[in-house]
Structure formats: C-alpha cells, structure tokens
Amino acid sequence: MTVLRGRMTKRMRLARTGMLAAIGLALVGCGTQAKNDTFSLSSMPRIEGPASTHRQILVPEPTAIKAIDSENIVVRLKDSELQYLAQSQWSDRLPRLVQAKLVQAFENTGKVGGVGKPGEGLAIDYQVVTEIRSFEVNTVSGDSATVEIFAKIVNDRNGTVRAQKSFRAVMPARGSGRPALIGALDAAFAKVAADIVSWTLVSI
C-alpha cells in the first residue's frame, strides 16, 4: 500500500505510519488507480497600496525547478527529500496558476493602467518576472505550507532591473487531511501575492 507517489527510501518506509497520522491521508489499495482530487488557488489578497498608476504591467509565466513545474503538489519530508501529495493535483501546472492569480491580483487593485500575459498586445512599461523557489507542504517540524517567490521588476523599454526581492510566507495547516494542507498553501500564496503586488505598485 502507498500514500505518497514517487520513490521512498527504507528509512521513510519505517517512518511512513507516523507521517500518515500527521497529515491524515487515506491509504490507497495496491493495484487500484486512485482518482485525484483537483485543487486551485482561491485566496485573493486585499491589496493596500499607493495611488493609481497609469503604468502597464506584463506578468510572464514564472520559472521553477522541475519538481515544482507540474500539476503535482509537493511535500517535503525532510531537508533534501521531496514527495508528492497522494490523490491530489493542481488544476493546471503550478507556474500557470501562479501567473493567472498574480494577473488577477494586479487587476483587482484597480491601480494600474493595464496588466496582462505575453501575447495580449499591451504597450508594456514594466515586466514582473518571477521565480517560484518553494511551494510545498512541510512535515519536517509540524504540518505547514511554505511559499517563496523571487520577483524582479524589469523596465520593458531598456531591460534594466528596477527592483528585485524575495517574498516568503509560512502558514500552519489548520486541521488535518488534504484540504487543510491545501488551505495552508492557499493562504501562504495569498500573503506572498499581496506583498509582490504592493511592492510593485510602490516601486513603479
């Protein structure tokens, strides 16, 4: 029987029972194809920022390492070992979800002249270029979610970097089971997204 997809070391097999209790996941019978529950990012941050700007912003798709750049939901079992949350997946590749939600967060402020993705024909002033460095459930020291995104504001007219900064949030899982873990990821991302948008509005 297995709960987490991917390879598992002998040490982790011995510790598996404890981890199952910690995150409250149901076992999947061997030889049975499990149906994945599909999750999205739903929390939309409330942005407190400066007065409106007429600048137009492009949000390219974030970059990420292969383990993150997929529909799988990452679980960190220890400092150097990653697995994926069983019977669970994002509704799209994670970088595309993050991109869509960042665009929506900028739009919801009503404080920019325009915001969009590549190919939408905007006359761009600045690009908000991002890298997803961490987007994971962490079981090393209690169930929590960690999201870290590095962002750069690039002048689209001359290619110079206006500002750059790393944004990180850690949120505890409130409850047990997969919905609680996804909720923690959702809340951590909402905090990071709000910080990126507020920082961008101030910087441009």
UniProtKB/TrEMBL annotation:
<keyword id="KW-0732">Signal</keyword>
<protein>
    <submittedName>
        <fullName>ABC transporter</fullName>
    </submittedName>
</protein>
<dbReference type="Pfam" id="PF03886">
    <property type="entry name" value="ABC_trans_aux"/>
</dbReference>
<feature type="signal peptide">
    <location>
        <begin position="1"/>
        <end position="34"/>
    </location>
</feature>
<dbReference type="InterPro" id="IPR005586">
    <property type="entry name" value="ABC_trans_aux"/>
</dbReference>
<feature type="domain" description="ABC-type transport auxiliary lipoprotein component">
    <location>
        <begin position="45"/>
        <end position="197"/>
    </location>
</feature>
